[in-house]
Amino acid sequence: MPPDTDSATRRASSVEARTESNRRRDVQGLRAVAVLAVVVYHAGIPLPGGFTGVDVFFVISGYVITLMLLREWGRSGRISLASFYLRRVKRLVPALAVMVSATLLVSLFFLPPLGEDNRVLYTAAAALLFVANVAIDILSGDYFAARSQTNPLLHTWTLAVEEQFYLGFPLLLVLGLVVLGRRIGARRGALTLIATATAVSFSLAVLASSTELPIGESLLGFYSPLSRAWEFGVGSLLAFAEPALRRIPRAVGSGLAALGAASLVASFTLISSVTPFPGLWTLLPVLGTAALLIAGVSHPEGVITRSVSGRFLGWVGDLSYSLYLWHWPVIVIVTLTWPDSDTVAALAGLASIVPAAASYYLIERRFRHVETPTRRSVVLFLLRILWLPVLTWMAAWWVASRVVAPFVRDEIGQPTLDNIAIETECITEEGFNREWAQSCVWGEDRPGEPIYLIGDSNAAHFSESVLGAGEIHNRPVTIITAPSCIPLRDMTVTYEDGSEVFTWCSKYNAFAYDFLENAPPGTIVLAFYDVLSWSDDRHYLARGEMASGSGDKADTLERELLRDTESLSEFGHDFVFVQTIPQFRTPGPSFDPRECNLLELVNDNCARSVAMSTLDKTQGFNRAALEAVASARQEPLIDPRDELCDEVFCSTGDDGFITYRDDIHISVAEAKRMIPYFEAVLAPR
Description:
This protein is 61% helix and 7% strand.
């Protein structure tokens, strides 16, 4: 390989510029179509397959890069890998570095720190190292999942795949031209190798989309270069065939243009997030793009080719890389800031043209043709473009770890932590047996009478409260809970037809009562959520009688609760009843601290409040039933409203401290703050 000289770089850059814009305006037009499809899809405008625009990009990249390298080989009989890689860095990295830096800074303030788990920091580092596809697959998983859609650097997976192609493809091409070329000719050797690699990659993509493979999603899934390489390969094969393509009759070229346009329209409208992808369906955007590229060679004056070669699409095509870089972080950050607007995503997608244009004119065009004739100038160039993202990343990491993390822990109570019942799987939907129950005992050797926390997730979120009281009074604590289960032996929650809503609850209740009847006498702390009492589509079935409506269900609850607690009292147990916490699901405002950004948290604008009079309209029936049971049995009743409400309103926060994990569960920190309430009623009687 020849050394990377100034003249060689200038010549290659000139060829690349001619290939990408001046000589083939239809290519720029196709780039515009691809990026507009992606932006429209991400902006929430109905275009279910708009994400396949990235597949259009892949085919174009394979085509353009192969043309450029074959022309270099044709001129000199050599390919300078150093020059090629340097040109790719100049073309892609400066604009990427600025976008990543800006996204990191803005994300610190406008993305929810409780919901990100440092994904942005990790993805940013991976994006600059061109392994974002690997990091995103690990951090976010499914491209279409809600968790992925809040990562403002999610789109960098395509850049990573493209760069991985750029890293491997020239080596494959040189191997075919030089090594196989000695036996069967240079072009034939390279063509054979690339065609084989394309066929293998396509086979892997189809196999992975239709079969559950033991190697897993990470290696051959949505983000994998192995299942995407064939798309580049199709474009590359077109570049090899370009001399023959020029001889295709105009009528055939015109037909291919129509077929290609129809294929792209079909891919944008027929493919969706539930389509197995990449796989056979990927043929639509890939072959559609290939047909349009062929038409651009064989029949450049055709109607469709001229349509995509227009000035506007050409301008958007010039901006396509920067527009792709900027549109997604703008959409994510804006929609997270104004989540209740139906049009904000579309407006954000439109507004992203501003930073995209600035990026193109001020960064892309400026850095693409910077001359680097010596190794020293190359090093200086790399330092020039990398210092900003590196320093920004380090600053963002310092702020996240030294400022935001302590604030979340000490000031707002780290509300998204799992309680100990979740961590130890002492709330579950299966495996109810004595071995499981025995693993959910704390302080087994304590001399005091045991405490048993029984109920659903609204019992489990008091785990730290009960454990704290148990430690103070030197009493062992057992936590056995199941989600959504009202802890009554002979009452089930059903649909209208009598079928059980939560099929595991009967098993849980049967086990819980059997366990308590055979356990040492102690105090049973009973808690559960009341939503099932005021859900119109849920009914209570108790000993053959169905109760509907909040009042009837509350009466049934009171009757069965008295019956079952009296039964357990015969085995020496006493009780502590806990009212359901004020809820923020309906009719009041919903609440999820993962949706609050740092500015909202700092300014105490994250909390939600609802009037107790409003809550009483839904929760009042259950509250009255529990009060009646506790009064009839003369047992203690803890009311979380004493802690979570003032005289008029209940809130999810207290002077900046977040008391709720979500709209129906308190946080671990709040559970610890409620220890005195449980300590008072769990003192030995």
